[in-house]
What does this fold into?
Amino acid sequence: MITVLVTALTLASSDPAIACDGEHRQGGVLVCRTEPGATVMLDEVETRANADGWVILGHDRDAPEETRLRVQIDGEWVFDERYDVAPAEYDIQRIDGLPPAMVSPPPEVLERIRAEGVRKRQAHASRWEGDGFISGFIQPTEGRISSRFGGQRVYNGEPRTPHYGVDIAAPTGTPVLAPAGGIVRLADEDMYFEGGLIFIDHGQGFNSAYLHLSDVRVEEGDVVEQGQLIGHVGSTGRSTGPHLCWRIRWHGRNVDPFATLDVQPDELR
Ligand SMILES: [Zn+2]
It folds into this structure.
């Protein structure tokens, strides 16, 4: 109880310890500025502002209706607020009366799938110290949105894994550009499910992925700039036609890639 009162007094007597641009909504993204090196906690996720006080945060597709943002500076909690998380509407397709059909990979590729899963998990664990995200984000390729973030099919009442990306349909060979600077943590032209695949960490573990590429023009460890060519649209891996599947994960949360396009870090300079 005493702690709560002290926090309230501290907040009332000074400017907010953190300022953010972006939305607390399901799949939403926020770029914030606080004190250099401050510890920032969004719910259970702990991250650290860089030397200029920048931090990037995200909400999962299925984020609960309330979120808590806290900031700790020099061992003291100086900010503690709760926010409503706006619900998102997802395309849910119910398909009933289908004969049960399992599309399982053949047994001879299971070892390959397992090994590729390890590489993907290791790449997702990247927590790059750079700050590519402070430029804001651009769309990596142009085309028709063929599948929005978060859609889900329900076959015979059984929900399948939601679509954690945005699909942009475009002809094979259409350039794919880095939407913000970052470091390439995975680059492979032949993954079993994803085909040509790139992962980029834009800083602090804000990781974007590009699937089904016809070719890959970067290598693991490359530091890329916003707008740099990283590959081309294709239909490699388990894909039914040429498109870019663009995904973003942040500390295990599946974030809406298009939410990055609304964030204006310049407002915080
Ligand atoms: Zn997709």
Q: What stands out?
A: Helices lie at 2-12, 110-124.
